Amino acid sequence: MSNTPLKIVVVGHVDHGKSTLVGRLLHETGALPEGKVEYLKEVCDKRGMPFEWAFVMDALQAERDQGITIDTSQLRFHTGNRPVLIIDAPGHKEFLKNMITGAASAEAAVLIVDAHEGVQEQTRRHGYLLHLLGLSQIAVVVNKMDLVGWSEARFQEVDAEIRAYLAGIGVTPTHVVPVSARGGDFIKDRSQAAAWYQGPTVLEALDGFAAAATAHDLDLRFPVQDVYKFDTRRIVSGRIESGRLKVGDKLVFSPSGKSARVASIEGWAGSDVTVLSAGAGQSVGFTLDEPIFVERGQIAHLAESAPALAHEVKARVFWLGRDPLALGDRLKLKLSTAEYLVEVAAIERVIDVEDLGSHQGAQVGRNAVAEVVLRSRSAMAFDTFGANARLGRFVLVHGYDIVGGGIVASANDTRNIFQVNHQVTAESRARANAHKGGVLWLTGLSGAGKSTIAMELERRLFQKGWQVNVLDGDNVRHGLCSDLGFTHEDRTENIRRVGEVAHLFAKAGMLVITAFISPYRADRDRVRAIDAEAFHEIHVATGLDACEARDPKGLYRKARQGEIADFTGVSAPYEAPDVPELALNTEGKSVDETVAELLVYVENRFGRAAVDSLSA
Amino acid sequence: MNDLDQLEAQSIYIFREAFNRLDKIAMLWSIGKDSNVMLWLARKAFFGHVPFPVLHVDTSYKIPEMIEFRDRVAKEWNLPLIVGQNKAALESGMHPSQGRVNCCSALKTEGLKALLAEHGFTGVIAGIRRDEEGTRAKERVFSPRNDTNEWDVRDQPPEFWDQFKTDFAPGTHLRIHPLLAWTELDVWRYIAREGIPVVDLYFAKHGKRYRSLGCAPCTGSIASTASTVEEIVEELETTKTSERAGRAQDKESEDAFERLRAAGYM
Question: Tell me, which fold does domain B3-183+253-262 have in CATH?
Answer without folding.
Answer: Rossmann fold (3.40.50)
